[in-house]
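pipeline/complex-builder :: batch 7 item 3
reading input block
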Amino acid sequence: MNTARSSLRHRTRSPFFHPWHNAAITVGLSAFLLYLAWHLWRWAVSEAVLLPGRGAECMQAAGACWSIVQEKWRLILFGFYPQAELWRVVAVLAVVAVAVGISSVPRFWSRHLLTLWAAAIVSVLTLLSGGVLGLRYVSPDQWSGLPLTVVLSLGAIIIALPLGILLALARQSEIIPLRAAAVAVIELIRGIPLVTALFVASVVLPLFLPAEVTIPKIIRALICIAVFLAAYVAEAVRAGLQWIPGGQKEAAAALGLRYWRTQQLVILPQALRVSLPGLINAFLDFLQATSLVVIIGLFDLLGTTRAAIADTAWQAFYLEAYLAVAAIYFVLCFSISKYSGWLEAYLRRSLKR
Amino acid sequence: MSNPTPISARHTILGYALTWIAMFAGLFLLVRFSVATLGSRSISVDFGFLGYPANFDIGNSLLPFTGSDSYGKALFIGFLNTIKAALACIALATVVGTLIGILRLSSNPLLRGCAGLVIEVLRNVPPLLQLFAWSAVIQFSLPLPREAWEPVTGVVLSNRGIWFPFLAFTGEHSAPSLLGLALAAAAAGVAAWRVFGGRVPKRLRHLAVAALVAGVALLILSGSVVPDLPEKRGFNFRGGVSVTPEFAALVVSLTLYTSGYIAEVVRGAVLAVPVGQSEAAGALGLRYLQTLRLVVLPQAVRIAIPPMTNQYINVTKSTSLAVAVGYSDIVSIGNTIMNQSGRAIEVIAIFVAAYLLLNLVISEVMNRLNRRMSLA
């Protein structure tokens, strides 16, 4: 009786203070966190130039200068897109947000999503580049900021998905030369850094194109990132394919289904479900990696931030700008990774049934 | 692969023939097309340019290099710099990541939560943004060498570089110093034997550690090796070892970014060891740290090796971000050469070969480690 009670008490004791070393850790860490929070508060709030503020005050302030965000947010978010047409990029972001939002709810997963995405892609491209429906034409060289980050990462995954699925199927194929070629392509791409692909996009690709064909650098970068991502997609899909029991394929063959019908009706619908979390993680990596386009002189969200602090008047406040942009990336990436974790648990539950 | 049924066998033969034809046709067309377009621009693929003089200097070289040295040598120095940065990142990220991963497993919710927050922040901010931020912090927030900051004696921080204390040979030898050198060499020999797959009995291992300690002590006491502290000379520092601001920014940012991932690997590996194992160890009377050292960690390491290999390969590839801050790794030197000589195709081919080589080496080393650790 006595032991039972003591073990119950042991279990309900606060882990913050028991055993004794946890109490020491809690006290020490709290003190450190308070110290940190106090300094952060002083820098970011009490001694900072808060919004709305004037840039001139920043020279006297001991803390942060958030005026740079107020002054440069348009440049950072939308880059060099024509000022008069900014509603179009806002609309693009809204369309993408709605499409992504709807697609992320498992209840809405059906063939209609393909229609939705086709419509989303058409409207995004129409809005961004214009030239039709009375919209002014905006050359891809002017696409920058958050819309460019979104277009590059989503565009890459949209192109990479079919490519990567084909690569994964080729890697699982019974035709040995095809399998060998797929393995070679996948391992080659996964072995080299993305920067190499971007150099291919900016320097090598134009050499292979006929002189009369010029493709904007953004599109070239998009193609190279997409091909690169396809290898990672193939690996994620392969994990799903390997999860499918061999009996599925045999059952489909017994029903008289040919290879492509089997893949389309039996294998892929199951395999893609299983590989979804892996696919989302690959997408997440590439959402961060699109920032590398800065190296070949494109202005994605990170590039426009660099442009904002290249202004000598605001150079001293680089940390505030980087923190603001890091917060945007963090919110995007963190919510995607949390969603991926939730989806993994959800799929595990639904597959058990 | 399942046994082919007659239907799929027929498919396979047809598929084989079609695939071979399609692949050869595709390759043929690609080569024809490339040769035609490259030819029309009078571009040829030729590695002869590697012997031409580079006409640029490398700020961060492990070997002596001047402008009259060849492009080939410049690329080789870049390759060495890539290896240097990769090794530094791998070593530091393993230590920092393991530490954060262990804190993430603490029984104290506050500590656990803080470690989790740190991991999420490190993982969810793009590495290039972290690199730019650290680079700017070093450039703008660290003092000039004139008023350099010395938090600990011998460690000097400035915006021109960071200096650490090191050991220097004075060049004078005596009997005790030679004995020390011999002891240290013997210890190194034992270590090398073990690294290359030899079996070392426990007693010999302890002996080797003792020999190393005694050897180093003899070398220092005899005055043949002296500590070398950085000292201010004119506008800069001399002595010790120094790292450039670009190198420091690259290593700090990639270390932190990778640590977030390694922490999750470590946490996952420790959690993957069944609870029954530590409960059984507890029942046998082992203390907490003993359980960790003798039961949990040896099993966790086995689980962690494959994902760690991935992280090491990733961070090695990520050192190519150096081009964004001007650390002379193979990519940034290659970039300069591409701009100067226009030899883009050849330089990219060299990049591919270099990174594939590094990947193979890392995988091979980790595979050996895996075999050594496995129970069989």
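note: Residues 318-352 of chain A form the longest helix (35 residues).
queue -> next item
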